[in-house]
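TASK: fixed-backbone design
INPUT:
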């Protein structure tokens, strides 16, 4: 048990699985009380039973603004205030690129991933102001930084979440409210399976497969876990980050450092290949440099 969030009152969306659940558990271990907002009633009840008096579950579909407002108001009423908001709930949304796009899919994805974050911020504002300040963290994604990691609608929504975090940090600084984002890479959670239409058990099996096989996806040479992201969220919400606002922490095991060839010696460097530079030429250069150094 730590004390980094002692007496803090937190609202977390998507708290019944993956990154949100790991964050709820870590927050509680650090002294916070948590209102866990999600649409998984059974999992929510199980969490309440695990953390009596420390965690309350609220059914809250984040695509429904009125439900977000009701859950936030309930958190503030039950706990006597609100210090921390983690706008995290999400799913894959509209699959594919522009050839698969539909207006409905686009709107649903934006409502789930972006409007929800705006609503979580807007409805929490009076409660955070009443406490004299607070911390908001929003979950973005490495798909906000570059193409190739996720579908078009999802990636666009996450890029907007990143920018929203910056502009609201500026807007809310006068109220002593800090706003930051976390930017996860590939984290072994159920989100991949649910995106393929699997039920939660099937999605958990797919997460386990990613856990077994995902080490080679990134330079860190191990799979990303929900707890890795939770640690970053804890830091951003704690007093240790009181001078940190309007920015983000990338938790991706180095996946976005650069092209795979920059860190994986088994992958050929495409630029060198395009220049016609062969491994033999590089070896000859290295040998010549060594010979020169030896005199
Ligand atoms: P997860 O599937 O394990 O957890 C997502 C949670 O959000 C679930 O408990 C689900 O019930 C809840 N949720 C989904 N739709 C909801 C709705 N309409 N209203 C309320 N709750 C809803 O997935 P994970 O990975 O923990 O996802 C959390 C966040 O992290 C999401 O925003 C996701 O986009 C983001 N993320 C995840 C990455 C990964 O590799 N797992 C990478 C980058 C970002």
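OUTPUT:
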């Amino acid at each position: 048990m730590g004390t980094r969030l002692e007496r803090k009152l937190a609202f977390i969306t998507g708290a019944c699985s993956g990154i949100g659940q790991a964050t709820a558990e870590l927050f509680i271990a650090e002294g916070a009380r948590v209102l866990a907002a999600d649409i998984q009633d059974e999992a929510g009840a199980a969490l309440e039973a695990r953390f009596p008096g420390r965690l309350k579950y609220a059914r809250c579909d984040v695509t429904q603004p009125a439900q977000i407002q009701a859950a936030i108001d309930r958190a503030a009423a039950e706990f006597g205030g609100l210090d921390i908001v983690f706008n995290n709930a999400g799913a894959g949304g509209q699959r594919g690129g522009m050839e698969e796009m539909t207006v409905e899919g686009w709107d649903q994805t934006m409502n789930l991933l972006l409007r929800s974050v705006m609503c979580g911020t807007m409805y929490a504002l009076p409660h955070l102001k009443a406490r004299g300040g607070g911390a908001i963290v929003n979950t973005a994604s490495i798909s906000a930084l570059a193409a190739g990691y996720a579908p078009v609608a999802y990636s666009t929504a996450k890029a907007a979440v990143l920018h929203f975090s910056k502009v609201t940090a500026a807007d809310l600084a006068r109220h002593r409210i800090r706003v930051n984002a976390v930017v996860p890479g590939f984290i072994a959670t159920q989100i991949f399976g649910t995106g393929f239409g699997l039920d939660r058990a099937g999605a958990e099996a797919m997460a386990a497969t990613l856990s077994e096989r995902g080490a080679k996806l990134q330079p860190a040479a191990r799979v990303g876990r929900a707890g890795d992201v939770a640690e970053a969220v804890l830091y951003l919400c704690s007093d240790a980050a009181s001078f940190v606002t309007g920015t983000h922490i990338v938790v991706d095991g180095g996946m976005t450092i650069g092209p795979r060839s920059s860190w994986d010696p088994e992958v050929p460097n495409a630029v060198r290949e395009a220049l016609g530079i062969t491994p033999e030429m590089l070896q000859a250069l290295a040998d010549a440099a060594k010979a020169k150094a030896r005199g």
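COMMENT: The longest strand covers residues 177-184.
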